[in-house]
């Protein structure tokens, strides 16, 4: 949010982890992170890494230890659920742990995201379905089974 004109992360910079994430997926992601590119400005992020299976977590640690010897300028963020801080990945990387508290107000964050997710110009896009021509939206309900 400090650079509002910078683009949001692309698909190759973010790995959304789950218990079904494979070691191969993590390996491909980490190799992209550690390969020295001409730009070198990308910040790679693993989300919910605490949900990786034990075997995949062990392989992730091994690969991380191996690859970091080849590139000391990598930029990697691993986000985990604080309620699962004793699972494998958060424990292994605990020496790098930083507790995050949002530094911006909710309305500032919403304005920032609206800036990046608004469809501009005249086009036939599904974004016209969402409020203010947004290309993403969240539909929720407090009652289950309401077709949302």
UniProtKB/TrEMBL annotation:
A GO-annotated cellular component: membrane
Entry annotated with the keyword Ligase: yes
GO biological process: negative regulation of non-canonical Wnt signaling pathway; sprouting angiogenesis; ubiquitin-dependent protein catabolic process
Keywords: Ligase
GO molecular function term, any single one: ATP hydrolysis activity
InterPro entries given in the database record: RNF213
Chaperone among keywords: no
Domain of life: Eukaryota
Protein name: RN213 ligase
Source species of the chain: Geococcyx californianus (Greater roadrunner)
Lineage: Eukaryota, Metazoa, Chordata, Craniata, Vertebrata
């Amino acid at each position: 949010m400090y650079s509002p004109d910078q683009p949001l992360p692309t698909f190759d910079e973010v790995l959304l982890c789950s218990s079904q994430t494979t070691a191969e997926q993590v390996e491909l992601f980490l190799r992209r992170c550690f390969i020295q590119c001409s730009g070198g400005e990308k910040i790679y992020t693993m989300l919910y890494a605490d949900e990786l299976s034990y075997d995949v977590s062990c392989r992730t640690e091994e690969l991380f230890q191996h690859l970091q010897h080849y590139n000391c300028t990598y930029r990697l963020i691993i986000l985990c659920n604080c309620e699962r801080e004793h699972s494998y990945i958060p424990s292994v990387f605990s020496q790098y742990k930083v507790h995050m508290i949002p530094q911006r107000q909710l309305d500032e964050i919403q304005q920032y995201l609206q800036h990046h997710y608004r469809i501009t110009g005249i086009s036939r896009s599904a974004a016209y379905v969402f409020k203010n021509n947004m290309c993403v939206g969240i539909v929720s309900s407090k009652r289950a089974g309401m077709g949302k």
